[in-house]
Write a structure and sequence with these properties.
Largest sheet: none
Helix content: 55-70%
Strand content: under 5%
Shape: elongated
Length: 127
């Protein structure tokens, strides 16, 4: 499933230079495919064919968010769906979403959704 597809650049068609659009598309595709790994800004920039500074500038100016914020949002979207749609443990979901530490995952999840993963699963909310 494409978790980053909601970040479609279609609405920006023509309003940003083609080079920036291509870099963003490569970065978003990479994030979408690899968000379960421990990704760094350098990893994403390298796969996008640019440097960290330029990639960060493009994300901020076009998407209004940092690369880290987008990566976190993609991870949290996947985790929220897995919590509702699977019987995976929270530890398994944490790992699959790219977190190697349960407390970091729970903290990030709580910031995004306003509740811990266990409560989210119990309430059966879905985005």
């Amino acid at each position: 499933m494409q978790w980053a597809k909601h970040l479609s650049l279609e609405e920006y068609h023509g309003s940003i230079p083609q080079k920036q659009k291509e870099i963003l598309c490569r970065a978003l595709r990479f994030i979408d495919c690899e968000f379960g790994r421990a990704l760094t800004l350098s990893d994403i920039a390298r796969q996008s064919g640019t440097n960290r500074t330029y990639l960060a500038q493009i994300f901020r100016s076009v998407l209004g968010a940092s690369v880290h914020q987008i990566l976190t949002n993609v991870r949290m979207l996947a985790a929220s769906r897995w919590l509702i749609e699977t019987d995976m443990t929270i530890t398994q979901i944490s790992w699959e979403a790219g977190y190697r530490n349960n407390s970091s995952f729970s903290r990030a999840f709580s910031i995004v959704f306003g509740m811990c993963p266990r409560t989210y699963r119990r309430t059966g909310l879905s985005i």
